[in-house]
Amino acid sequence: MIKYFPNYLYSPAVKQAFGLIDEAINHQVKYFAYTSGNRGGEKSSWGNETPVPHSRTKHHIERYLSEQINNSKTPTKWTIFSGTMFYENLEPTFSIKVFMSAYKDTLGSHKICQ
Asked: From CA 65, how far away is CA 42, in angstroms rounded?
């Protein structure tokens, strides 16, 4: 079953996701949608493993999803949603205002959405 990314075999998120992907393929699920996180856009995300543990885990799950489905004869199609922020980041609390100010300072003129 899990033959890629041996350093992450002990992560419950990876084990669960790989198992779910395998079962979706085995049962010929029509469409598989996965929620991930943005790591630099479409071109950068596939090669950007990132040093952030949670995002690195997502990267390995995305790669497994794409490789398993693309290399099988399953009719399953897939989509990965790569959000850049959460709805909770829009709450009018002081901590969120500090976060959003830091976000704005970091992004400068770059857009978070296309």
From this structure: 15
Tokens of 53: 């543990």
Q: What is the bridge-based pairing of β-strands 31-37 and 77-83?
A: parallel
Residues 6 or more apart from 84 whose CB is under 8 A from it? Answer: 37, 38, 112, 113
**CA 80, 40, 64, 49 torsion-angle sign:** negative
From CA 18, how far away is CA 64, in angstroms rounded?
Answer: 7
pTM assigned to the model? 0.69
Query: What's the rounded Cα separation, in Å, for the pair 38 and 47?
Result: 12
The terminus-to-terminus CA distance of the chain in angstroms comes to 37
pLDDT digits (tens, 9 = 90+) for 80-98: 888 766 666 677 788 878 8
Is 1 within 8 Å of 20 (Cβ atoms)?
Answer: no
